[in-house]
């Protein structure tokens, strides 16, 4: 046998490498977690069984809380759009220009980057379903703010919850069934189609916000229910509204259960962070654990929200008492997902991961601020200084029944200074006097929707409600009447114009005209469409919002729109009968 030193050397080297490889610890690829962020609308702290309400049945959300992390002191804003802006950005809503809930004041400034922008840039698929409420027209639309998929309605409250007019990626569509069930169906379908890549799903429900429309299956459980009337505001309570709110909360609970079950069936539950919260306090005087105030208030009852985070086998069940707020959601999710923010603007929130994982015993003291319509309150772990500069000890008096002496209080001095600094540094950024002009023809979007809520009626034309978000124009009786939209045309070109209308048979033969400067297009009204109010039989309590009708689309024609700040005007060049059409929506489709 011939001895070959070279062969022996390579043999020994190979065996050594194999041994080294076998000793190397196994590395497992870290999978980014999916995220499902569920936000209800006008559901107060007390509208869950887990928080002590004996009148409402919410077993699925309660179970999520019992098996996950609950924050007992989590704060949102007094109304919808500011809270949603802070969820999206991790920054105080005045920085993003949000000062109202309608007519453009709810729009999030375009130089703000959203949670969807950030997660999308880190390899996530992104989708939003439901109520947006931070800008309707592109580029304020969710499809232009990082969400690849959108199904819902972009303005504030909606007037019909049963197969309503909605939009899908900017195009008008018809809902299917009760709106919360429908939104959940679309979200589950999306998750099912995106199991091969991490997803961020923003499921923004719009109940128990009014109108209090409830399907029979949920209403029948509550319509005759005895309601606890021993709470703080029982003398102001409207019983049927409360019953409807609880029925809607149980429907929400059922849908949350469906989402969790879907994640489980897809074998995604162990790698999905599920969050459940509300956007502000309750929309009525009902049981709320004795907290002061309701929606619209900067007191505890107006801004303290349920906040539940569940991540199976990653977060142990616990109740966290440290104060936190909406601005903390984005930095916390980034931290937990191990992703970075590629954009420049600093976040106001802090990551809650150390609290969630128990990895930090010391937690830095902080303040949480609440603002709406010029009213500001500030709280720390023990005290609140309210919008009238009254100081309350929240440990001894969580219901804010009796203010404490201020002059000798170090807490009063500290919180007064913090409040003044926040007003001067943050609130001063808010421009409440900006001119609200509605963009048309954004380069990356085919459709622009101009609802009645963003239009201005002239002459005898009236809104169907003082609350504009789901309103339509009616009482159009003269050719001198008109509707205008104050628009900024971003792209010159031809646009197909479609109006969604109703009218009585006597209006047939009239002529509708659409104008922009010297450009115009017109069409005759050839078909009556006299719709009754929709789903009125499901109203369980009197509403303030407008009722909805079944609006019919009518193609007006193709109009040239010139770039620049030019209002669009809708007129009747001829009217037949006592009244012209009623107008809900103008759609402009850019023709390339």
From TrEMBL:
Signal peptide: none annotated. This is Arylsulfatase A. Residues 33-339 form the Sulfatase N-terminal domain. It comes from Algoriphagus winogradskyi. Keywords: Calcium, Hydrolase, Metal-binding. InterPro entries: Alkaline_phosphatase_core_sf, Sulfatase, Sulfatase_CS, Sulfatase_N. The lineage of its organism: Bacteria, Pseudomonadati, Bacteroidota, Cytophagia, Cytophagales. Belongs to the sulfatase family. CDD domains: ARS_like. Pfam families: Sulfatase.
């Amino acid at each position: 046998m011939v001895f070959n030193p070279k062969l022996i050397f390579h043999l020994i080297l190979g065996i050594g490498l194999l041994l080294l490889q076998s000793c190397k610890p196994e590395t497992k690829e870290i999978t980014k977690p999916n995220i499902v962020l569920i936000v209800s609308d006008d559901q107060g702290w007390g509208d869950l069984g887990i928080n002590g309400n004996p009148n409402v049945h919410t077993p699925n959300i309660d179970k999520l809380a019992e098996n996950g992390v609950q924050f007992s002191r989590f704060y949102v804003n007094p109304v919808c759009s500011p809270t949603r802006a802070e969820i999206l950005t991790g920054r105080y809503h005045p920085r993003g220009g949000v000062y109202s809930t309608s007519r453009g004041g709810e729009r999030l400034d375009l130089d703000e980057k959203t949670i969807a922008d950030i997660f999308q840039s880190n390899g996530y698929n992104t989708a939003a379903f439901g109520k947006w409420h931070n800008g309707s027209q592109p580029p304020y639309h969710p499809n232009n703010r990082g969400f690849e998929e959108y199904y819902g309605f972009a303005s504030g409250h909606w007037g019909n919850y049963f197969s309503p007019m909605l939009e899908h990626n900017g195009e008008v569509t018809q809902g299917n069934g009760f709106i919360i069930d429908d939104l959940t169906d679309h979200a589950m379908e999306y998750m099912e189609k995106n199991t091969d890549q991490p997803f961020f799903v923003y499921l923004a429900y719009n109940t128990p916000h009014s109108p209090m429309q409830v399907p029979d299956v949920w209403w029948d459980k509550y319509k005759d229910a005895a309601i606890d009337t021993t709470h703080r505001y029982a003398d102001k309570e409207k019983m049927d509204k409360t019953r409807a709110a609880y029925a809607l909360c149980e429907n929400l609970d059922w849908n949350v259960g469906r989402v969790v079950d879907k994640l489980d069936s897809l074998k995604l539950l162990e790698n999905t962070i599920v969050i459940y919260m509300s956007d502000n306090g309750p929309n009525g005087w009902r049981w709320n654990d004795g907290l002061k105030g309701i929606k619209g208030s900067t007191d505890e009852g107006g801004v303290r929200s349920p906040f539940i985070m569940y991540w199976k086998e990653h977060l142990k069940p616990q109740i966290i008492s440290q104060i936190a707020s909406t601005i903390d959601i984005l930095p916390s999710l980034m931290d937990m997902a191990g992703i970075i923010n590629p954009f420049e603007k600093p976040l106001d929130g802090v990551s809650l991961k150390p609290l969630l994982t128990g990895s930090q015993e010391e937690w830095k003291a902080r303040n949480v601020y609440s603002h709406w319509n010029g009213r500001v309150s500030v709280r720390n772990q023990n005290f609140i200084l309210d919008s009238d500069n009254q100081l309350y000890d929240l440990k001894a008096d969580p219901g804010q029944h009796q203010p404490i002496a201020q002059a000798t209080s170090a807490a009063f001095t500290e919180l007064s200074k913090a409040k003044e600094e926040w007003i001067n540094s943050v609130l001063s950024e808010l421009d409440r006097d900006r001119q609200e002009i509605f963009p048309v023809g954004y380069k990356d979007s085919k459709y622009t929707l101009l609802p009645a809520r963003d239009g201005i009626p002239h002459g005898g034309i009236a809104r169907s409600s003082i609350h504009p978000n789901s309103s339509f124009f009616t009482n159009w009786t003269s050719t001198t009447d008109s509707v205008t939209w104050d628009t900024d045309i971003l792209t010159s070109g031809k646009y197909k114009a479609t109006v969604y209308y109703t009218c009585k048979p006597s209006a047939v033969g009239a002529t509708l005209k659409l104008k922009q400067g010297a450009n115009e297009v017109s069409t005759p009204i050839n078909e009556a469409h006299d719709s009754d109010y929709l789903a009125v039989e499901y109203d369980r309590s009197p509403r303030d919002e407008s009722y909805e009708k079944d609006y019919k689309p009518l193609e007006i024609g193709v109009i040239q729109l010139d770039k620049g700040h030019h209002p669009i005007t809708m007129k009747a060049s001829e009217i037949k009968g006592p009244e012209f059409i009623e107008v809900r929506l103008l759609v402009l489709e850019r023709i390339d």
